[in-house]
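Peptide chain release factor 1, pasting as requested.
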Amino acid sequence: MDAWEAVTAEYAALEARLADPRVHRDFRRARTLRRCVEDLRPLNEDAARLRSLMHDLDDARELASDPAWRAEATRVEREAASLRAAIATAYAARDPFDPYDVIVLIDAEDGDRPGLQAVVDAYRDDARARGWRARHLYNDPPPHWAILEIEAGEEGPGPWVALKDDNGALRGAGAVRVTVLPDAEPSPVDPQDIRIDLYCSRERDAQTVLRVVHEPTGIGAYGRDPHPARAQANAMRVVWSQLAALESAPEGRYQAVSQAPGGHLRLRAAAAPGPRM
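C-alpha cells follow.
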C-alpha cells in the first residue's frame, strides 16, 4: 500500500471511530480522536489531490495522440510523482501520537522528595502556562515517585508533541528520572490477562488502594483514590499507556524495571540528555 493510500485508509478509520456513538461515552478518547483527525487532515487533503491528479493523468493519456495532451500528461505525471513523494516523506516522519495527552512517570531514584516535588511543580506550572491541565493519577504519592496526567483541550496538538523529548531526562540534581508516555490504548487485551490486587486498610475513611497488573508482561500500576472505580480507572490508564508504548516505541527507548522487590514491572525511559527544570 502506498503512503497516500495508507493516509486515506487511516483517515477513514478515524472518522468511522469518531462517528460511533459509543466512543463519546469516554470524552477523553473522543477528544483525542478529534485531534487525530485534525492532525491527519492536511495529509488526507494531499492524498485526495493526488487521487484527482491520477484520474487527470489517465484522461490525458487516453488523448496522448494529440501533442498538447501528451505534454499535459507529462506535466500531470511529474506533479503527481512529486506529490506522491512528498506524502510518503511526511507520512514516514509523522508521529501518530502527537495529538495525544501524556502520562508522566517521575522517579526520585535516591528518594529525594524535595527534588521530586520540584519536578512535579515544574510540570504543573508548565501545563498551566500552556493552558493544559495536570493532576496526580495516584493520590498522596510516596516520597520516591509520582504519576501525572497532562491534558490539553480540544485545539492544537497534544502534550506528547511538546514533552516526548523529555523522555529519560534527569531533573533536579540529576537523580529524578522522567518517563513520558502517550495516553494511548494498546492493541486489544484479553480481560483474563488483567489481575487486580486490592489492598485493605483498617483506617477509617481510608482511600482505595489497588494494583492493576498485565500478567503476560508483568507491567502494572498502582491506583489510589477515595472512589474505587476512579482508582481502578487511573491505574488501568497507566498500564494501557505502558503497553501502548511497548508496542510502538523504538527499541531501547523504554526499559521495564521492577517497581519493588517481588513487585510488578514499570516502564522507565532510558537515560538521555535533556534540559533541566
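Note for the archive: The two ends are 44 Å apart (CA to CA).
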